[in-house]
Specification:
The protein is an alpha+beta fold. Helix content is 31%, strand content 30%. It is built from 5 helices and 13 strands. A hairpin with a 3-residue loop joins β6 and β7. α1 crosses α5.
């Protein structure tokens, strides 16, 4: 399993590099547009663990359920992360926030890459820092910020059965419902977190989702370029509504 994990990490690094190339060559990328708006910059930590489930090797992703008393995003499923402090880099920000929120030590993960950023409201530019768990950890949610911590199969963000997409006025949103087999707790992932994990799952597995996305049938440079073009258009629509 260790050799397969190394191969999977190598493939993930290659996919991240391809995604950053496609993003950089997209003339309408939201980063270029958002630079003019001087958005708030933040980062999230996408923690993946390589597991053997039912005889198959696969990735899980670490998610949190935010506390209900928070001012923003209360009760939502999110990735650990937050706004960068002055002079702080994207990786340092994501690792610090993960330690503050769920007690994850930076030595417990290997950072494998920085995926292209996206924008959320109100004009926050979010950079996903992708990291792989390198040892067993015992996580403890900070009750001031996090109500629950759980692992979810990353493959769910590629599956048609787990996906629903009701239309919200001028844009289409992605929702993923998941029941934890250990606790029977039911979680719904949507919004920015869902958008990011659709991309990360495609990079990790080098596949395209089973549901309609970019009208692509295979994972390649063209799929990624179309993905970022569609993301940019949606972001422009969102910002125009502010």
């Amino acid at each position: 399993m260790a050799n397969r994990k190394r191969v999977a990490i190598k493939r993930l690094r290659q996919s991240i590099a391809l995604a950053n190339l496609a993003y950089a060559q997209n003339p309408t990328s939201e980063a270029k547009a958002s630079n003019l708006e001087l958005p708030v910059v933040s980062s999230v930590l996408v923690v993946l663990r390589y597991v053997n489930r039912d005889g198959c090797n696969c990735w899980d992703v670490l998610l949190t359920l935010r506390s209900n008393h928070l001012r923003f995003h209360r009760g939502l499923v999110c990735l650990p992360g937050g706004k960068a402090e002055p002079g702080e880099g994207f990786v340092e920000c994501a690792l610090r926030e993960a330690h503050e929120e769920i007690g994850l030590a930076s030595t417990s993960v290997e950072v494998v890459g920085l995926a292209p950023p996206t924008m959320t409201l109100p004009k926050v530019c979010v950079w996903p820092v992708i990291a792989v768990l390198n040892k067993s950890v015992e996580l403890k949610a900070n009750p001031m910020e996090v109500r629950d911590v759980f692992w979810m199969p990353l493959s769910k963000f590629q599956e048609l059965d787990a996906h629903r997409s009701p239309h919200h006025s001028f844009i289409s949103m992605h929702y993923f419902d998941y029941t934890c087999p250990l606790t029977q707790s039911v979680y719904t992932v949507w919004g920015l977190t869902a958008r990011l994990l659709i991309l990360i799952s495609s990079l990790a597995f080098q596949t395209v989702p089973q549901f309609s996305l970019c009208n692509s049938k295979q994972f390649n440079y063209s799929f990624l370029k179309k993905y970022f073009a569609d993301e940019s258009y949606m972001i422009q629509l969102l910002v125009s509504k502010l």
